[in-house]
Design brief:
Largest sheet of chain A: none
Radius of gyration of chain A: 19 Å
Oligomer: homotetramer
Largest interface: A-B, 52 and 53 residues
Keywords (chains A, B, C, D): DNA-binding, Transcription, Transcription regulation
Structural class of chain A: mainly alpha
Strand content of chain A: under 5%
Number of domains of chain A: 2
Number of helices of chain A: 9
GO molecular function (chains A, B, C, D): DNA-binding transcription factor activity; transcription cis-regulatory region binding
Pfam families (chains A, B, C, D): TetR_C_43, TetR_N
Organism (chains A, B, C, D): Kutzneria buriramensis
Domain HTH tetR-type (chains A, B, C, D): 10-69
CATH superfamily of the largest domain in chain A: Tetracycline Repressor, domain 2
Distance between the termini of chain A: 23 Å
CATH topology of the largest domain in chain A: Tetracycline Repressor, domain 2
CATH class of the largest domain in chain A: Mainly Alpha
Order of helices and strands of chain A: HHHHHHHHH
Chain lengths: 211, 211, 211, 211
DNA sequence: CATGAATGAGACTTCATTCAT
DNA sequence: TATGAATGAAGTCTCATTCAT
């Protein structure tokens, strides 16, 4: 899709995306477009040429993010000895890289607008498919409780993407790791308390983990 | 503290707080002050007379929220047969009522400004003290893993205050309940994997769970 | 006019005027009405009962000021050995007391509104009459140039009412005194250069020295 | 400094300055920014792009004004036969053109803010230097009293920049001229009465005559 | 195509004035 | 009658988006 861009145009596009990611992750999705442009070293006009409005920019960012996560999942699945270890690693990496920190977007308008992208939807499905594989494998070999599904895991991860407040007495990194571990332990069969409802299947999902 | 207000002024103040809570919980902390005023049925001027700026409003809202949570914690502690049951109930209620949904504030400036309120700080400490009691009791009778502290629990709850996206196949209420249960199961001793770092003590905490 | 006020009402009125004078002289005529009320120790409502709007307040202040100046002029005329000395003293006192510092009002709307007060006009005329007496006497005995009239003097004084900027190397008081002296020396016959136009007579004057 | 602006941007900038000068001279420094923009034929946004806030605008205006005055002083010094004539002409021109009428700024906040501009300070010093030359020359050849310095003259001129009230019986122009002449006559040696304090030297001056 | 200037709607806040208590 | 609460118009400033260069 970006293949037919001229070399410099491509470079611009990438710089814009990088700047947008950095600024939005740190300051929320509301950063002035002009500031994004400045950080990217281009004029606003150029930004708007590439991304007609803020939503388009967010969409591109989200797709990019999901593709990164997919890559992480694939690698974890291929590299780790068993499914549970792979899943754990994937979850830890997602949280650590805070690849979904754009989650801080709350504006429901943006929310709605984002959902409507086909590109986004298919990237997401692709990701979910792989994670579901890991989950099912882990459940088969008894290392994961069987009353949870991809959607549960996805929601959990998405909750943990929020940057934690600085708490005196711990480093943010430690805090992150502790919370993630607690979440993973909750997915083990051992302490499993029955859950209300039933796990959602991948089929009818519309997951927004990216935000 | 608000006792010396005239009857009508008090009524206005309450309406403003109610409107602000509702709008901020749903649309984020950025709702136009004017819209808050309109929903409360007063002029902007009135809003500003009561709360000199957005931060003051948020502060009042936060204190109110925390006081509600404290009340819930007290009741749970008093009513339930054992500490773990009490803690679970408290956590479920917090999440269900989404009493801390203001958490959606991301703007770091607001964040910082809020921390500086003594009133807020003491309300928070009060709440933490009670929760810590429950935790310690539960740990003593072996129903809770011993490598976690109030701060861990607080952070966990705060993560779960984010309103989950609507997921096809489950109701939001069910989703909420599932995620909360998973979190609680992670706090049980049975599946406990060692955590990095160590639990923070109440003493040096500065917790912002309310937002 | 204020005679029929109840004792406490009179006290309120005076406190308001005093507060208004102080605040307006220091911060300009734009001080919030509420601040004036607060300084006077009354509610805004009371202020507005006494003075229907800002202009009314200014008018009262101006009349008061002019009456003070008139008193100064009378005393100088009566006490000093000769007219020129009396006039000099009067001018110096006006500047020193900055009795007209309200002059800082620039808003033309206020300006116009103020002119329309009969009370003000007659107080002003009264003052000008006395000053004119001093001028004419001084001119008769040769201590003052004869090509200037009350209006010239009035305008000069009014110019000098502006609080001078702080200048390093001199005290404001000294600066004031120097400038006033230079002005007075310019009124002496000795260095007199012919002036364009002719001195305006008291008759058709509408002088706003009070501001 | 404004050389690198695009042609249209430069035109806008100039129109804004012109509009601001006109409006501020007549109505005080408080004119709504929006009105300035309207008069300049641009949107508010444009105004704010050029001048981030009111103070920046005033600063630019002041620098411009001072530069004009400096030009006048230079010409007077070069053209007139003797120093006193040059100084008189310069003073008359300043008053007539009311080149410093922005003096009507009273708001102490603006005042303070303005002082902090280096550009302004150096423009001012440049002007004072030339005026000081004229003064010293005039004093050397005996046409000016020797107990006054630049600062005295500067303060005097600054006082006379206030637009005089319309007085029946004289034209404003005549009135201006009369008052200016009186001021000049006061600077002559003949009638000189001793002044309190001593003239401030240029070295430690921080003069704000421009406003 | 890139740039950055211009626009103008809209958010925030202040205050003069009115009015309920 | 005094108070101070409420109102809302008005002013300041910001920023998404369009458009001339």
């Amino acid at each position: 899709m970006t293949g037919q861009l001229r070399a410099d145009a491509k470079r611009n596009r990438d710089q814009i995306l990088a700047a947008a990611r950095e600024l939005m992750v740190n300051q929320g999705a509301g950063v002035p477009m002009e500031e994004i442009a400045r950080h990217a070293g281009v004029g606003v006009g150029t930004l708007y040429r590439r991304f007609p409005d803020r939503v388009a920019l967010l969409r591109a960012l989200s797709v990019h993010t999901i593709e990164n996560m997919t890559e992480l999942a694939r690698t974890a699945l291929r590299t780790e000895p068993d499914a549970w270890t792979g899943l754990s690693r994937f979850v830890r990496e997602c949280v650590a890289l805070r690849l979904g920190a754009l989650r801080s977007i709350v504006d429901p308008e943006l929310h709605t607008a984002l959902r409507q992208s086909d590109e986004l939807r298919s990237a997401r499905t692709e990701l979910l498919r792989i994670v579901e594989q890991m989950i099912e494998a882990a459940q088969r070999d008894g290392s994961m409780r069987t009353d949870v599904g991809v959607v549960d895991v996805a929601m959990l991860v998405s909750l943990h993407l929020k940057r934690p407040f600085d708490v005196p007495g711990t480093t943010p990194v430690d805090m992150d790791a502790r919370l993630t571990q607690l979440m993973l332990d909750g997915l083990r069969p051992c302490a499993a308390t029955p859950l209300p409802g039933s796990p959602t299947t991948l089929a009818d999902v519309n997951w927004d983990a990216d935000r």
